[in-house]
Give the backbone structure.
Amino acid sequence: MTTLKSLPENSCAYEEYDPKTLKPVNESTFTRLMELGWKKEDFAGKSVLDIGGNSGILSLYAHNLGAQNIHYVDVQAPLVEFFESVVGEHKLPIEIERKGFLELNTEKHSKDIVLCMEVLHWLVDQGGNVQDSIQKLTDLTNETLFLETPWDVKEPSIAAKGVVLEEHYNIEMIIRELQAHFETVEMVRFMTYFGNMADSKRILIKATGKRTNNLQSSANDSVINEDYSLAPAAA
Ligand SMILES: C[S@@+](CC[C@H](N)C(=O)[O-])C[C@H]1O[C@@H](n2cnc3c(N)ncnc32)[C@H](O)[C@@H]1O
């Protein structure tokens, strides 16, 4: 039998919940779950991959919304052990693996819904790049990819380290790559759960409708050409 552990201290406020009651313990967490706008009809019966799941809060939320076959992965042993203890205590049908993004493979880890929430910038920080990461996320996604990510490298947690450069991580590049792989890329909303932190701008993106043939450099394909006119079409 596992003993219920306490949440490791390096978790962010918005990832916190009481492991006994599974209730969010602060306003940041409540606000974030509300801002996600996820609905039961989106998750019911779907399989879910939660990449960099940290405390497991989003896996729990997906389970609450009716998802089946939820697979949580994270690289940090204390977080994985914490979430194992929660899942053991509450006898939840959630698979847990200590695994890094690069070790995920389509055969084992592909799911209907993939959550890559506040992880992409860390992948770039760790020597990855936006293009390869989004290609891999696409490969892992059967239906819907949710990506929550900082708008640019001014985000304080990225800027503080100073490793990721603007030319390697910016929202334009992220959207362009997503549009090359998905038919519909929806900028759902800016997330405010961090409060008014200067330079912190985080956006939730939903990508659906995987393209069968990736568009190459879609952002360079402009609809504007010499024949283009803004005049209304003739009736
Ligand atoms: C800012 S937290 C976000 C947690 C969670 N996804 C959420 O949105 O609430 C980032 C998480 O990504 C994990 N992580 C960082 N690099 C990773 C990698 N290469 N593969 C898998 N997880 C990673 C960290 O351990 C951390 O738990």
Notes: The chain has a mean pLDDT of 91. Residues 12, 15, 51-54, 57-58, 73-76, 79, 100-101, 117-119, 122-123, 126 surround S-adenosylmethionine (CB under 6 Å). The two ends are 74 Å apart (CA to CA). The chain has nine helices and seven strands.
